[in-house]
Amino acid sequence: MYRFFTSRDIHPTGWLKQQLEIEARGLAGHLDTMWPDVRDSAWIGGSREGWERVPYWLDGFIPLAYLLEDKGMIRRAQRYVDAILDAQREDGWLCPCRDEERGDYDVWALFLISKVLVVYYDCSGDERVPSCLYRAMKNLKELMDDGTVTLHDWGRSRWFEAFIALQFLFRRCGEDWIPALARKLREQGTHYPDLAERWKRPMNQWTQETHVVNLAMMLKYEAVSCDLLGEPYTGIGEELLAVLERYNGTAVGTFTGDECLSGLSPIQGTELCAVVELMYSFEWLLARTGDSTWAERLERVAFNALPATLSDDMWTHQYDQMVNQIACRRFPGRSQFRTNNGEAHLFGLEPNYGCCTANFGQGWPKLALSAFLHSEEEIYSGVFVPAVLETKWKGTDVRLELVTEYPFREKLEYRITVSQPVDFALRIRRPAWAETLRVNGELRTEGGDCVIRGTWEGTQTLRVEFGCRPAVLDRPGGMVCVERGPLVYAVPIEAEYRRHEYDRDGVERRYPYCDYELLPRTPWKYALASGELEAEEREGDAIPFSSRHPRRTLRAVLVPISWDFEDGFDSVCAKRPESAEPVGEPVSLSLFPYGCAKLRLTEMPLVKK
After folding, report:
1. Is the pTM of this model over 0.85?
2. Minimal CA–CA distance to 597: which of 265, 318, 312, 406?
């Protein structure tokens, strides 16, 4: 079992810092200046939404501000936290509603803001937070005991989110009412193992039980709750994920849900909230179990699905992304998506709903905070992003820097500096896709992660290199996808960006936070003609997952085939082509990383020779 470091220990560098800086300059870094639901929220005394949107935004903005050590952003975050703490009622109630409305107020927002305050405490050390959380959770227990508050709707589905704060409190005071509240939440909350049969046959029906974000969050429920509940950890998340992947999985490690589970079709969508919440669940599961499989899954989502659904400048995002996404154009008539509207795949300020507008910002900062984990005797490098760890280990100053261009390259360099000799183990994940592993040039033939134990002195350097080749993986319906290392690759489709500026419901869409339709300008009707693929290293630009200048591509031979549009649409490719028979001469093209290709063909047939 591992613990997270905080923003006081971890400092992003390299491409990761670039990505965080882009986020700070973009939408997530400015919602408090231009989006009414955050700028004028009831959480800070305004008249706009007083439920999940400010907590969602703070959940990403706070660690972003502290990781970048941006004093202006930190002051802006503190303004919101100050207002929330100052507005807490005498009895401990924390959320912005009238006393007589408490019974109807969905306490999912309380779970969320309590989780945010734990993040804020880890970043700032503000000692007002423990007292606030103590009073808020004690008040929740009293209200649940007397029946004023019962879990319903989102609170019932997301009961386990409260356990982030409850764990925090129990470690500090260990009082019996905390596990008692934990048991009550579990009793009133959704029992997900009972629902797995419903996930096998997606319906065109909105339900809490098949809601993709609920299910992405749910995967960590045992990991965050079992200790407080006094129950053994059984690994139920692995079993439930297997069902979701088998019946709804995508090529990039997510599962479809637009907005509820949507099956295996590559032209269904995945909600952006589900992407970042799936990452957060994987981060907790990695820490709880130490199982490197969760790091593999985390990287697959983070390096593919997350950047794919954000514009390069991070001023716009999609609500739903599609694995085979040949256009992002308003649907004529009915929507292609099961329970989302016909604009959900546009890039914009708040396509479909604003929850993703507020929530997507947590993705990159929390990935950065997962760069290194620790146990009593070990530092674990399981997520390979460029960062520096500065911490105390047994009273000794330790600086551990990971210098890398991963996932665009497969080389890692660790620079370890200690103020005096100290013993600890450094564990480095061995990826499942790595055919070879070399440490300082020496081939390591034993299986499992690389664990280096001993006494560290002065400054030492470890150079780690993984050997891998491109792979062609089978997908449902006779289709395939291409990957190399942690990256999935796709046929990039050049896009024309059609800008739309307008007002709706009192919210402006103005450049740079307007809406865009993306129209295809290059062919997309292809099959993979050969499994022989050649990696191409490129210089790239200042945008890590650039849609114009990706840092790595794969050269592939493709062949044109007959592939029509989905019935009733002129901007959605059919789920499957009519035939994989070539209708033209083979062409050599560069496949882009999935996260770099805003329009793309990811799943396609493989033409057998």
Report:
1. yes
2. 312
